[in-house]
Protein 1
Amino acid sequence: MSVNRVTTRTEPEEPDGVRTPLRGRDAELAFIEARLDALGRGEGGIIRVEGPVGIGRSRILAEAAAAARRRGTRVFEGAADPDDQFVPLGPLLDGLLSGEEPLSGAGRLRDLATTPGQRFWLLQELGDRLRETARNGPLLVVLDDLQWCDDLTLLTFNTLAAGLSSHPILWLVAVRGGSVPSGVRTTLDRIRQAGAHELALGTLDDRATARITEDVLGAAPDPDVLGVVRRAEGVPQLLVELLGSLREAVTIENGTAGLPAGPPGPRELPSVVRRLAQLSDEARELVQTAAAVGGPVTVALLAELLGKSSAALITAVRESLDADLLTESGDRLAFRHDLIREAVEAGLPLSLRRALRGQAAEPPPGSAASPAGLPGPSAGRAPADAPEGGRAGPGDAAEADRPRTAAAEADRLRTAAAELAATAPGPAAEHSLRALELTTADAPERPRIIAETIPLLWQTGRAAQARELGASALATGGPGPEDEARIRLALARLAVPFDFCEAVRQARAGAALPGIPVDLRGRLLAMLAVGLSMAGEHAAAEEVAAEAWETAAAAGDRSAEATLTTVRSAASFHRMDLTEAFRQAERAAALAEALGVSTSLWVPEALWHALLSNTTGRTAQALAAAEEGIRITREQGRTAATRMWLMTRSRILLEVGRLTDARADAEAAARATDDLGPGSLDDVTLRYVMMRVALHTNDQRTARAYAAEARRMRSDGAPVVRHFGSWMLALMADFDGRPDRAMAELDEVMASPAADRPAYAGLVDPADAPVLVRMALRAGAHERAAQAVALAERRAVLNPGLTFLAATAAHARGLLDNDLAPLVRAVRLYEDCPRVMARASALEDAGRKLAVTRTSEAVPYFETALALYARAGAERDIARVRRRLRAAGIRRRPSPAGLSGAWPELTAAELRVVRLVARRLTNQQVAEHLSLSPHTVSSHLRRAFTKLDITSRGELTRLAKHRDSGE
């Protein structure tokens, strides 16, 4: 047995090998300092540090050892290793006999350790040596990873700690939280009874997370960076490793670290790679397969994918649980942390990931699901010479078994579809369709299978097929009330993104059916409330939601609760109580996440939270949520959800002034339109975004095309669609220099019932308040302008913690009163908000007011506004501000901030795509590299080609070489 080896620690690897200060552990370190002070006074004892993998146990021990050495205390450090548990006493002897100053008599102790039958004397000798050493001064004995210690080490530690308790020896041991071997648990119980002090390490708070981020990146993080690092959920090891993967993507500007290109895709993490390497081949394959499949997965499905029986996985499952990579979630296995799952998956080739996910949809050969396992077309057919009467032949028995076999197979396929629905809806839909094929038209379970299949088809981009399936089932008149209600619930979920009014109709019809179960009626009422809320019928939505709450509570239905909590949030938003709206939105998102997307009634609970964040100025948080939503749903093949997230991100990108990116997202979502065609959600996102971008970029042809769509929207059955259409037409009329017409377009909105009127007086965003005031003043509609200002100010007063709302109110007030002071205040308030277009507008308005009497003071406002508009690519706004600068006597053209000097024609997003294409990457490879869709890449590339006046990738490569060389 070797006792001279150096134990490898599993502390987080610091970027560049530089250890950052320990953050967020002040209370724990203060306690240890106090115990070290007591040790200096001759008081020994035991401290047990406990916490999960990656929480920082080893770092606490290292800091304690350093603090002890600063006091002149002698320190011995040892650690157990999972690969060396067969070395008796190894961890303790390593600590006592190795290092710069080993325990006296080390040679004698080594001889005893390697001589058979001498362990009793070794224990006595160790006690004597420690007692003798402690007479010369206090000792700190550190023992890390107690959960991996062998039984003899545990016994020796417990015996020595008890026998030497009167001496100035402090034992500092660390153990992983959760499940530990029985021998370790016994030792922990004994030292607890002996009075050991316990330090339980929890996750870090947001403040500590932000400080560590600044330590690693060298600058204070902006909200985008903070949004990414919060995914570590306060686990120090994951946080530090995640920051290491971010460093290449982070840029530091004005002392702030940001992610101008967005967060990079998932990467391998060193700690996860190490833990995988420590597993057996069987356990490693199991963990990698679980990562590729995605969310929580049953052992049965893993066994099927790995071609083994469930019993054959017992050891591998236990090993993966012991390694703290996986944890049990009910009857399924889930990853301890989503970053761990992503890191494992990132270590697999893309082709293998796709193959594993595809394999999850295909049952193995020879199983009941394979073609060979099913009777063929001739199965059960009697031979030609079979007797015609009396005795049944073997074919008759097969024929009799055939329906039973098909029914069993259909049941198996339904079970598989339910398991795959959360992570692989495409294969799940195929399983469900196959189950439907195996079910006869008069089978009592057929309507239920149809209701299960519709959401899966919709999620995978086959909404028309889903609607036809449901409509056909209802047209036959065959389903009973309960089955009809389930089909109508599925159709209501399907209709929400396409036709708000149809969603209301289906949910209302289903809820009115007699004799249906309480939980089913509760879900239908919840969907009815969602449809009414999205349609803009707020009063009716609240009335239905109140009834639905009672029904859902009686049934104990958490899915309905998540959906109804979103409706409550929307109602609070409508009443301008944004604090309550956020509280309810966060609760709804948490409930939906806990339930899992496959059981959620309404997929976009988290999407609503992102929209709410954007509307109230928390744009970085909203953008981070949208990026994550797009990435996850794209990985899982949720076409419909990806499209909804793309539409949401296009709205966010519009507000932050990334006009090209907003248009690219809108175009990508439009191309992904299902064969049902565009619908209500498209009207209030895609069409609105495309028209606003067209107006800012002076693209009159596109703007007028969407104005025509807005006229159609004015006749929609949903009030919210009519309101959006009215606002779009008002913007178009103002663009054409017809403010009177713009006011007339808003008359219908302002005449709608007060209970359903948009909370922002016909607007779709708080930043539109100054736009409406400016528009109304040009039309001489002072009363309407004053009404918009009053609402903006009321909204800001009701929500004092939201700076963005205060900025829009000050901006609107300054325009109404023609007063410089509130305009300047708005400029100052907008500085803390990422709403580029709103800030540029306030700067322009303040400059316009100053230019009347103090021209020289107006110029900096105009120039800053021009730089922001230039960065956004808002050509119409750029031209207008340049005219104002010329009127002020300024002829120079300020350099657009944020654009590359070598590529002045391109936006940052276009330039990122161009550089990768110039390196001969395909559009698909660029999309994967930048976490974009191929549609978005194509859109960026097409616009870059137009701006650069080139027509081929070869020309682009040559141009890139020329420009980047500085020639």
Note: DSSP finds 46 helices and ten strands in the chain.
Protein 2
Amino acid sequence: MKNPHSLEKPAATLIAAATLLAGMGLPTAALAADGTTPNPSASTSGTGTGTADKDQTNTPITWTLMGVTLTADDKGTLTLPDGQTTPAFDKRPDNASVQGSDGTAIPLTLADAAEEHPDLGVTTGTGILTAEAKDGHPAVRVPATWTTGTATTLSDGTPFTLKDGVWQASYGRTLALKDDNEPPVRNIGLSDGSKHEITWGEPTLHDGKVVREGTASGEIQGQKWQATLTAERDTDHTGLTQAVTAARQAYDEGAGEYTAASLENLADTIEQADELDRTGATDEAMDAMRDRLAEAVGNLDTITWKTDGTTLSHEKGQGYNGKAPDTGDTAPGDTIPLASNDPTLGKLGSITIPRIQNDDPATLTDEDLGVARATGTAHYKGITPNGNRTATWSQDYSYTLGKRVEATGPDGKAIGFTLGHGYLSATVTASLDQANQPKDADVTIDGRKAQVTWSGQVVHTTTTDTTTTYTRQGRVEGDVKVAGTDRTQHWIVYVSASRTEGHVAGLSLIQRKPDGTTSRHDISGFDPSRHEYAITMPADAVADQYTLGHTSAAGDKADVSEGTPIAPTLGANASRILKTTLNGVTYTVTVDFQKAKPTPSNPHARLNGLYVDLTGKAGKGTLIDGWDPDVLDYTIRIGANDPGAYILPEAPSGVTVKAGDVTRSGYATTQYWTTRSADGQSRTYSVTVVRDHGTPTAEEAFTPGAAKDTDGQTPAASRDDTTLVSHGYLLDGEYHVVKDTDYTIPEDGTFAYASKQGQTVQVSESKVRGMTWKYTLNILAPDGVTLANPAPTFTVTYLTRATHEAAITSIIVDGKAIDGFDPSKHEYTAQVDNIDHWTVTADFDKSTGMGVTIHKDHDKATITATSADGLTKSTYTLKVSEKPLTLNCAGIDGATVEGLAHTGADTASMISVVAVLLAAGVACLAAGLTRRLHRGKRGDARTDGDADVTGSQDAE
């Protein structure tokens, strides 16, 4: 009878299978119950039966796996019944277990597992599921199989096949490659829906097609796979192939015609085109390469040969030929160098070709003294290294032989010879002196003076209403050899010496004030037959400097001939007696000065007198000649060696007097005094002292050198050309061009100009003022008719060290020279006894002709020195202060005017100054004591004792 607690086998099998499937994560399967199941609480033995405890009976346990009821073998190990298999697992059974009918489970271990891949993405396996007997459970040993995954193909259904351990598949069709060789796709799909990037190879050329191979790879369940694709397009290389063929032909024909560098460039391009022609290049790349080939052919550089910048002409396959574009100015050489644009030829691209034998000789003609000209054409011929081609060259030449024999005319300029009938000739001009003797009329040939033969003493005179021209003719001739040849030249130089005087049309007086300003005064009633004149100037102009000027009846066309300068002399009342010699006639002009007229205004400020001591002592002398209290300006004339005039103003009680400004012009000095009465009336008195002098000042003695023509050989632009090449001045033999028409000329320089060949230039000069002259150039064109209109004029100021100097040599305050004076220092200070009564003057070199003005303003004096040429001024300032009260004296208003001053080497003034200073010192001691008795505080009004203070000063 059956155990009532047992289950039917199908039911036990169902439970065991359900349990195993649950452990495997698989769905339960229908089980057939074909055995009994032991009581779950009962223990089991190795035979599959258990012994029940005292409360239970033994219940057999049935064990199942995957719906299959296991049976025990002779050892009690659970296994499959004979001929029975278990279903395949859907994954590897690493966690399977056997289910007991009592609800217990036996965990199984997978042993001897083996797997394989029948398809990409599919894994099948076999193994033994085992368990050891323990805890009352039996041992288990059951074979097992499993299958996982799904077979994977390419997206188009192409299957993979296993090769060398990698699943491989080729895409089922060939793709179309784009025109630019770009692939049509970038990714490939698998049947599982995944996308994978394709790696494309470089384009290759196969059977007229451009082909690119692509691959994609990956891994599925540890299985490596690779898919391949092919993309292609049709291509045509005919155009490129033809272009390469044409380029090769140009290369093969270019040897000796084109430069190595350009041929090498073409060869490189052909090689690159060949390489491209063997590849699956794009149409665009092949088009670009055809362009490069065409460019390389077009850039083939024809081999050229040149000399001296000129390229020889050349036809392809022919030789080279050329001629110099300019005529050579030197003797042709035996060879000429040719330079190529190909440095691989010759010596770094250079060769020489020789002059042909028996070339035509040069033709010789005389050109200048000692110089002959050779003219002709030189021919050269040679072979070039690029294909042994002929190169020819010709060069016209015209050069001189010999050395110019130095020939200079009377003006020191080179003589220009012209070719005559079998000889060389030249005409030069010279000057006549006022005695009509040739002056500076030497002709020098090859360093030796040639003797000019003059036409006796015959002087040709041509007189017009305004001028007289004197002319003499001469001639000199000889022979010279052309150095380096056997050629002899005969030469003749014709000399024409002349001078033109402008008739004297008038005289004028040129006045220059101490501050450098000038003015011109015409002398009325001029008649050339009358030789003595007089002119009267204002009384206050007595201290100015004067020279004579003149005008020519010919205007700017001819000068008046001036004689040696004559120093002016003094006449009565300091009048100037000026003399000048013009055209051999001496004219005398006496410059008188108006007498100062009485000035009755401000009578309360009258002086008692002006006292003059001509002995050089600082003391009260005699009353000045012509004294009148209402006449404010006086003039004193002293001899060249007189010590000077000490002038002392004397004022009545209640009138103060102060020494004021000083003006000095050459040998004339004016001292001013200002008087003031108690009721405020004021006057200014002046005394001008004029010293006679026998030597002219630097300005009076200056005469500029004769104007020079530095050219005369520059070709004129036309026959009626009246323009100069330039103008300027000569200094130390060097000509300096100046663009301005009003300029200065350095010391020892003379006005100069550069005329053109064939022009005749007559220079007229006139003194404008001081050191300034005006030059007018009357220029006759080479046609002998056209005259420059207007004639060019130039105003020049001559600079000399003396006439350009504007510097004083000392400052004298109250008769005492300031210590430490330096002409380059322009600011000084000094102490005086009385700030209201002090004198100042300045010493300077009178021989220069400079002027000095001194302006006093209470405690300050401004001293301005102006050069004789009027171009330079120097200003000095003096600031004075009163000495301490214990040293004060009454002050100084007396002045030594036009004392013997520094005139170069003259030292007499220093002795005079010392004596004056000693006298002034004694006067200060005495006056100081007196002043302290009469003077209160500094703010007190001056007493009568201050009104007639005396003192001394050297003023120059």
Note: The chain has a mean pLDDT of 83.
Protein 3
Amino acid sequence: MSRRGPRHFEKLVFALSDANDPADAGMSRFHDRLLAADPGDELLALWSRRLTAWDFEQSPSWSADTAPRTPERRAAVYDKLMFGGELRKALDGAVPVHEEAGPVTISREFQPWYTREQAANRSFYWTSYERLLRRKGWSDAAVSSLDEAAHAVVERLADPTRETPYGARGLVVGYVQSGKTANFTGVTAKAIDAGYRLVIVLGGTLNLLRGQTQRRLDMELIGQENILGAADRDDPDALVGIDYQDDEDWPAKFVSFGARPSDLGAFDIERLTSRDRDYRSLERGISALEFEKPDRSRPLHDPANLHAARARVMVVKKNKSVLEKLVKDLKKIGPILGEIPALIIDDESDQASVNTTDPKKWEAGTVTRTAINGQISKLLGLLPRAQYVGYTATPFANVFVDPGDEEDIFPRDFLISLPRPTGYMGVQDFHDLDTVDDETGDAEEKHVRGIYDSTGDRLQEALDAFVLTGALKLYRAEHGVPSGPFRHHTMLVHESVRMAEHAALALRINTMWHNAAYTGPEGHSRLASLFDRDFHTYADGSLPTPGTYADLKPFVSRSCQLIKQGGSPVIVVNGESERDYAQPDLDFDRTPNVWKILVGGTKLSRGFTVEGLTITYYRRTTQQADTLMQMGRWFGFRPGYRDLVRLYIGREESLGRGRNAKTVDLYEAFEAICRDEELFRAELARYADLVDGRPQVTPAQIPPLVAQHLPWVKPSARNKMFNAELVEVRSPGTPIEPAAYPQDAKMTARNTERWKPVLAAVSGSPVTCRLVPDDTSPLSRSFQAASTVISHAQLLSVLSSLEWEDGNVLAPHLAYLSQLDGRLAKVDDWLVLAPQRTQRSRIEATVLGQGPLSLFRRSRQTGKLSFGRISGLEHRLYAQQLIERPESAADGAPVLGATRGVILLYPVVEAAHDDEVKAVASTGTAASDRVIMAFTVIPPKTAIDTKQRLVRFRTKDSTRPDAVYVDAL
């Protein structure tokens, strides 16, 4: 049934039954057996596994017209099995349909080769990996979900036996710390089973990270027999030089096949790197990549040779010198490289792998590449049968890669977005994305502790929480909760990227720790208070939690002992050299218990899994969304203690310096990029469904769909965004103020002419605009302004007709404003205010026969088209007050309502001094080519849809210079 899909079950059972006792095969007996089965029953487990696998299968030949993970698919399974209503009901009760979303795939059309039948025929390493996952406690749904996602990747790689070489390029998008390694381990297992014979995993930029990945693959895929080779495991001398002999998980937790795979009818795996040795050179020289061929007259990729050959696996650090050695060695091998089906897996593919050089600085006809990107490009060139699959949780840099650069890593063949795994603590656990206004939701209340000016830094409280949660883990372990997840208990403190500040902060934490008096009355009093108001209040009722602090108190001392073992409770994790990371207390694999406070910066953010992370103290600011997202180490799996997880995060942090300084809310920033990520996934899902059996769009046709909910957080670092074009900026309640007006006199005159109908409407008597006292001033202030109201259509007509010298700087804003006719939101009209200067400094003139109008002086920034600020501070504050209070007027101010915006309109003379403005107005009439009609547009706050998307980018394609953007729907 597993290979050909479900079939008539009763007939199959009868055919396979014992001829002497056919009564055992009766369906009524089967039905009764299922109803009587306990949760751990072997028969029930078998049917759970099979039904779940059929539920998840993508486009099976036996039911191509039903979607996976749906009641319709399950009904189709029952129809094939010929099960009646009672049996269906019994199975549905025991094995409910898992309806959560599966992976989303955007793909080119591809030649099917990796069918389910093919996968089942050659599945030695996948079957072993699947068994291991089940032993680790993975549910049937989790295993089937991984199977489905890994199969979707491998079937889009090139057939390893095809005659003409082809290298597919793909990207798999997961969640931060969500098990991407499990997915690429599954992909590797399926790929080598299918015939890929060289696997190169690019595993991080540090030996620490590379070693973590190597150990994971060795433990869960490669296995004891391949690690030992011909060495006798019972001979100590034979084990010298073989890694993991000091690993407490060896050999018990390392997969074993029972014998060498080649003795079991499969093939062996040869490791070209080990846990402690990165790639240096081929240890046996070129012969390490000489593949045995039973038929030397045929190429390696011929099935007669391929499936008998050993696979080679290496886990390589993303380091220029290491990759250069690998490329140099491969060049020596010669023509055989063209025969090797290879798979390159790039973990954290948006880090170091993307070409970040500026195309504007390239020499004509050449592409300048960064060091790592250049080496990856060379690898792909040397291995024409190499498939490249990138893995990342922050895909923005990858989708901004130029699709036209054939030697780069743009995912031209497929992009797969993995579903959120069951049990994963992610966005929804820390952010209440569905709340309205400023209300606090359950997630924030349970897990987030804001750091404000009024709260102080709360660092002592965070330390207390670390001690308290350690004690709670020990309490739970003693009361029946599996203690495995409590092996490590960590706190992460991340305030800065500067190493000197890390040292000072570590010293401060050490001092606080030694003064905390955790075993004295003062310390116990603090912990008891924190327990009562926080951890007891928000404890998971399904897990054992003491009723009072007195019941927890005996475990506090042990928690403190574990934290300070080795002398210090703090580890500093930073530096540029490998020795900075070779600390025993930082090795989660070899150290029995890591109970420490980790202080660090960037190196703690990428790929490095902080095991047992329970308390996070985060105050570092950044303007890149992908950097900020990777700092989110508090996302992940927290079995048995997810209710104890706390995030202490800055809500009023300084960003920038001098005039550019601002105060930002890091929690709000995280929420914004989380929304970006969810939107990106949702947009992919819109295009994923096939139409008439064909993809609606290919990866190269998808706009990056990268949105920003906060203007100061960009999707990726500037040097990764040279192929990104700004498409749309949405500004509900926020000023839109172009600054780069034309210098050409004729263009200026034409633009001024286009404002004439509006100028005619504002030529009446001025009104007094009074500001409400606020944070900027306790005093009441006012100014005079001419005013009118124009329709939304009239505003669009004017703005759409304006000319600009250096590209249409207004285009992204017009893309937004044009949708305020009801498609995105509804704006009926606009209040136009033409402010006047004070009576003492006022210079007036008519413009195009309208007025007189008050002329304003503005200067361009040195060497730029841009002026500085267009709108005056008081004018902008007044307009903003009207927008903020659309339904209530203060001191005679107009009531806007929800569908009216505000425009500030300024007749501007480009001048450094007022004398120049007076000269322009000397006759009482200002020439239209001397007056720039500058403006600020502030849409109402309601001018946005429920998605709250504010900024959107698209990707350029260098192969289509006449097309501004990549094709999109």
Note: The longest strand covers residues 781-791.
